[in-house]
Amino acid sequence: FASAGGQWKNTEKRESAFVFIGKNLSTEMLKAGFEACREMKELRFSIGTNVRANVGTYKLGKVIDQWDSGNAYRIRLRDGKEIFAPVDINEYVRAA
Q1: How would residue 54 be classed by pLDDT, with cut points 50, 70 and 90?
Q2: pLDDT tens string 55-66
Q3: Bridge pairing between strands 93-95 and 50-54
Q4: What does pTM read for this prediction?
């Protein structure tokens, strides 16, 4: 790896790595999250769509905004509470 501000040598392979330190991390969820951020594509759910949002368990709600504060979705749950789904993956938000 090149140091911050350093130059890659012609013989070096140009690659970067992320390191996560913790217990019982979900490799699939981390990979899916990074893949969702990889390219800008149209989001799966339009504003007004009923969805199931993960708040520990999946609860019914409605998409009320897209790309709010850098989050893929802002969702209003049936109890009136508003939450964010940071990326557009099933681990955060699913079709109702």
Answers
A1: very high
A2: 999 999 999 999
A3: antiparallel
A4: 0.63
Q: Is 85 exposed, middle or buried (0-12, 13-18, 19+ CB in 10 A)?
A: buried
* Pairs from 26-32 (Cβ < 8 Å, separation ≥ 24): 26/91, 29/89, 29/91, 32/87, 32/89, 32/90, 32/91
Burial call 51-79: b when 16+ CB within 10 Å, e when fewer: bbbeeeeebebbbeebeeeebbbbbebee
Grouping H, G, I as helix, E, B as strand and the rest as coil, residue 28 is helix
Q: Is the pLDDT of residue 85 over 70?
A: yes
Cα distance between residue 51 and residue 45, in whole Å: 8
Q: Residue 79: what residue type?
A: D
Question: What does the alpha-carbon distance between residue 76 and residue 90 come to, in Å, rounded to a whole number?
Answer: 17
